[in-house]
Amino acid sequence: MSTESPGPPTRARRSDGATVLYVAFAVTVAVALVVAGVLTSGQPRSWLAVAVLSGLGIASWMLRGANVGERVTLSFLSIILLAAAVIGGPVGAAVVGGLATVIQVDPEKLIVRVFNIALFSSMGSLGGLVYRGVGGLDDASTMTSAGRILIGVGLPLIVTDIAQCMLNALLLAGVLRVATGSPIRTQVYKLLSTTGLAYIGYGVIGFLFVVLWIPARVGWFSAVLVLAPLFVARWAFVQYGDEFRAHESTLRALVTAVETKEPHNAGHSERVAQLSAWLVESLGLGHKEIQDVRTAGMLHDVGKLGVPTRLLRARRELTDDDLVTIADHALAGVRMVQDIDFLSGSVDGIAHHHERFDGLGYPAGLAGEQIPFSARVVAVADVFDGLTTSRAYRPALTVSEALDVMNQRAGTQFDPLVVDALGRALTRHEWTPTVRSDEELMAAGVAIDHDEPETSDLLASRPDLRRRIMGAPGRSLEAVPVVPVAEGLS
């Protein structure tokens, strides 16, 4: 399996010039590795074998699985490159990797195609160089002992597999860094955590491929013998991709329902989800935490489906009863999604995103690190997006102005650690304030939004209201496990 990026994501795109320079660097690396292969190993022993492997590589690339995540696709090219490192040597493997990505079914930008050619050519060359560098046998055709095959071919292939996996992750993380500002460490961890085990499994298949081709003298027909397990694995990844997209569709359906009631807040959930993911990246957490917090940000206001529309668009000052009703949206959201298995890691973030670091929030009055980590992140993202969005009673704050407000409230309303992460994230990613039209603002009403810091301060100063919120009918915190995950963040 190999993981490739079909071009830089569109959000938070950095300078195209920087991306071009990085792709030029990747091409330079590819050329340098090919030259090193020529100097150390010369031409492939069999160009016919290279041609067969190239055909397999092209087929693998054209039949690669559909997207299974954030613009990441799966193919079987890495197993072909691993076998090519032994059968074709560094130069042959480079040819296999380069040719595999030249033919495209769907049109792609030239820069994307060039990057993919450089990436897989580099993986092939490096594989061949590493295999021979760690003592891999140049000619395994005379090996008849299982022990000698394992030592002379198997162990070097393990090192080769690791080297190809790491190069793949590093080059992809680099292009994502220059294109979107995503931290290299986070992207490398994300790629390795989601594809590393698959590389190991496919490495075993690659070893069997080599053994069948050379010591067993099956030759090119060994390609047929490995098709079955390859396509079984491909089918499994495609199923995962289908499941992932089904989950995304479910989330967007819920968000669309909320935004139908609050059209003036369209896009708020998506922006909070994106900013929440950036915050967790800045804190150095892993892919699972990023996904859980992102989902919590996406669904943090889903409980508004149970709030009367007249309150969400109120044209008068909200009464105490109104505030209590609106405040119940946090736990109402939990009641809606807590039985959906794939949302289990996001429930705490939804339930507690209105808690305050000083303990004067709701619905449980938690303080400090008692508040689930995901909720502390979503709280910061939620309010920051609100501050940088136009309201009927004030214009959108600039990024600098909103960040000043967040810093002033660190330690009272917000976790200082998360506010610091916000500052770092905004230096890496571009954030544009959301300016609403006059028509949108007229439909929004004039009541102060529940996400405004002033509303949080009002409830913090009114213990009577907080008691009413905590004792609201239908409230059930017992069904909402609080699982802090802040360990390791200091």
From TrEMBL:
<feature type="transmembrane region" description="Helical">
    <location>
        <begin position="188"/>
        <end position="214"/>
    </location>
</feature>
<feature type="transmembrane region" description="Helical">
    <location>
        <begin position="110"/>
        <end position="131"/>
    </location>
</feature>
<keyword id="KW-1133">Transmembrane helix</keyword>
<dbReference type="InterPro" id="IPR037522">
    <property type="entry name" value="HD_GYP_dom"/>
</dbReference>
<feature type="transmembrane region" description="Helical">
    <location>
        <begin position="151"/>
        <end position="176"/>
    </location>
</feature>
<feature type="transmembrane region" description="Helical">
    <location>
        <begin position="46"/>
        <end position="63"/>
    </location>
</feature>
<dbReference type="InterPro" id="IPR052020">
    <property type="entry name" value="Cyclic_di-GMP/3'3'-cGAMP_PDE"/>
</dbReference>
<feature type="transmembrane region" description="Helical">
    <location>
        <begin position="75"/>
        <end position="103"/>
    </location>
</feature>
<keyword id="KW-0472">Membrane</keyword>
<protein>
    <submittedName>
        <fullName>HD-GYP domain-containing protein</fullName>
    </submittedName>
</protein>
<feature type="domain" description="HD-GYP">
    <location>
        <begin position="243"/>
        <end position="438"/>
    </location>
</feature>
<dbReference type="Pfam" id="PF13487">
    <property type="entry name" value="HD_5"/>
</dbReference>
<keyword id="KW-0812">Transmembrane</keyword>
<feature type="transmembrane region" description="Helical">
    <location>
        <begin position="220"/>
        <end position="237"/>
    </location>
</feature>
<dbReference type="InterPro" id="IPR003607">
    <property type="entry name" value="HD/PDEase_dom"/>
</dbReference>
<feature type="transmembrane region" description="Helical">
    <location>
        <begin position="20"/>
        <end position="39"/>
    </location>
</feature>
